Amino acid sequence: MPKQPSRAVVAAGVLSMIMFSANFAASGHALAAGLSVADLVLIRYGVAGPLFLLLLLRIGLGGLAWWRAVVLAALGGAPYFLLTAVALRFAPAVHASILNPGGTMVFAPLLAWWLLRTPPETGVRIGLPVIAAGLLLIGGAGLGEGGGRAWIGDLMVLASGFNWALYGVLMRRWDVSGLRTAAIIGAFSLAWVPVHLLLFGVEGVAAHPVEALWQAAYQGLIAGGLAIVLYSRAVVAMGPARAALLPPLVPALGVLWAWLLLGEHVTPMQIAGMVTVIAGMLCGALWPRDRRDKQAAPAG
Questions:
Q1: 2-32: per-residue pLDDT in tens?
Q2: 149 Cβ partners below 8 Å, 6+ apart?
Q3: What count of other Cβ atoms lies within 10 Å of the Cβ of residue 55?
Q4: Quick one: pLDDT at residue 94?
Q5: What is the pTM of this model?
Q6: Exposed (0-12), middle (13-18) or buried (19+): which is 292, by Cβ within 10 Å?
C-alpha cells in the first residue's frame, strides 16, 4: 500500500507529464519536416534503448521473470507507441489526445481495485470527474469529427490507454521499481530497431539529419528516457490509481506547447480546460489518504 505521496513525488510526476506533453507538438514538427511516424519510433528507441540496456545489464531484472519483463515492455514500450500511431490512421489526433489519457484514468483505478484490492480513494473519486470535465473543454468539440472509420481508431486509442493503465498496476503488483521498469521498457524495445531497418531502412532519417538530431534529443533522451523513469517512480510512490490522474495533463499542457512551438490558436475554453485538468489532478494526487487505507494491512 503506497504512503501519502509527498509533494516532491507529485512534482516529479508532473515534470514527467510536462516532458511527455511536448510529444504532440514535437511529432507534428517532425512530420512537417519530412520524418514519418515509424522514423520517430526508431529514433526514440534507437537512442534510449542502448542506454537502458546498459543500465539493465548493471542492475538486472531483480528476480522478475522474463515473461513479466516482456509484458511490461509490450504495455509501455514500442508496441504501445505503435498501437497509438496506427490508431491515428483512422481517428484524428484530437481523439488520441483525449481518449488515451482518459482511458488510462478510468481503467487504472478499476484495475487497481481488481488486481491490488485497493478501492478508489476519495481524492481519486473527486478528481476523476473534474479532470473529465477539463478534457471535454479542451477537445470535446473535436470528438465528433473523423468520419466513418474514426471508431476503429478510437477503440485502438482506448486500448492503448488500457495498456498504459495495466502497465502501472502490474508494476505495483509485481513489485518492480520505477528505474528497473524504465530500463526494461527501453532495453526490450530495442527489438523494434532491426524490424524497422528491415521494413523501412534509414532513408527517412538520413534525408533529414538536423530534424532527426533534434528528435533524438527529445524522443530518445527526454520523452523516451527521463520522463519514463520519473513517471514509473511516481506510479510506485503514488499507486496506479492516483498516478493515473497525471496523464490527462498531457493534452492540457500539449495545448500550450502547440501554441508556443507551432503557433496554433488557443481558445478561452481550452485555457479553462487546462486549469480544470490541473485542479482535478492536484485534488486527486494531494488529497489525504482515506482512514481505512491508512489502517489497512499491506497487500500480500
A1: 555 677 888 888 899 888 887 767 777 787 8
A2: 90, 91
A3: 17
A4: 67
A5: 0.80
A6: exposed
